[in-house]
Amino acid sequence: RRRVAVLISGRGSNMVSLIEAARAPDYPAEIVLVVSNRPDAAGLARAEGYGIATAVIDHKAYGRDREAFERALDARLAAAGADLVALAGFMRLLTPWFVERWFGRLVNIHPALLPAFKGLDTHERALAEGVKLHGATVHFVSSEMDAGPIIAQGAVPVLDADTPDSLGARVLELEHRLYPHALDLVASGRARLAGRTVSVADGPAAPGSLI
Ligand code: GAR
């Protein structure tokens, strides 16, 4: 089983979906560590409730020195023997130093169908654009924000009566299915980097898309 560290900044509902999936004995990954850059992240207590090791690496302690923060993070990941890192609502931009060090072993979930709606307030912006399908993306992290080879995507309908909250709740429910699926593809070696894209080895049996 691949050893996965999950990085959070907040409530950690996607982290919980990964922890729950990894409880299945045939899941190809185990969650060995949860790290938050914020001491008050609600997800820390949830991880502890599952008996998972947690760490706080408070970015504020490092001032503007992003690399010093990341060197501390990297040391903690190495100490835990992490093979893969999953960002789950981790709201810090990572420097090229960290991203290159972990490239191909570092994944993120973003609440939109990339490359549409990078950045924040994705549900509000999807409604403003009048898109009829919205969703979530799991991708390998590259040094540009919310970009990098796409591993899996899922789509949900946008309904006429939607508010950012109602649409966001529909997407979040999808995220909780999508992220465990995508991590399964990566940890089992079925999702492989092929230049700027990812190929999924098992074809229709393990699609990169969820609806
Ligand atoms: C999720 O919707 C995740 O996709 C998003 O933050 C939320 C975290 O919720 N991530 C980003 O916007 C990253 N650009 P959670 O803490 O309950 O998993």
From TrEMBL:
Biological function: Catalyzes the transfer of a formyl group from 10-formyltetrahydrofolate to 5-phospho-ribosyl-glycinamide (GAR), producing 5-phospho-ribosyl-N-formylglycinamide (FGAR) and tetrahydrofolate.
Biological pathway: Purine metabolism; IMP biosynthesis via de novo pathway; N(2)-formyl-N(1)-(5-phospho-D-ribosyl)glycinamide from N(1)-(5-phospho-D-ribosyl)glycinamide (10-formyl THF route): step 1/1
Source organism (scientific name): Polymorphum gilvum (strain LMG 25793 / CGMCC 1.9160 / SL003B-26A1)
Protein name from the UniProt record: Phosphoribosylglycinamide formyltransferase
UniProtKB keywords: Purine biosynthesis, Transferase
Keyword hit for Protease: no
Domain Formyl transferase N-terminal intervals: 3-183
Top-rank EC class of the record's enzyme: transferase
Coiled-coil region: none
Catalytic activity: N(1)-(5-phospho-beta-D-ribosyl)glycinamide + (6R)-10-formyltetrahydrofolate = N(2)-formyl-N(1)-(5-phospho-beta-D-ribosyl)glycinamide + (6S)-5,6,7,8-tetrahydrofolate + H(+)
Gene Ontology MF terms in the entry: phosphoribosylglycinamide formyltransferase activity
E.C. code: 2.1.2.2
Family affiliation: Belongs to the GART family.
GO cellular component: cytosol
Pfam families according to UniProt: Formyl_trans_N
Taxonomy, superkingdom: Bacteria
Catalytic center residues: 110 (proton donor)
Residue numbers binding N(1)-(5-phospho-beta-D-ribosyl)glycinamide: 12-14
Presence of keyword Ion transport: no
Single GO BP term: 'de novo' IMP biosynthetic process
Residues that, per the record, bind (6R)-10-formyltetrahydrofolate: 66, 91-94, 108
InterPro entries recorded: Formyl_transf_N (IPR002376), Formyl_transf_N_sf (IPR036477), GART (IPR004607)
Annotated site location: Raises pKa of active site His: 146
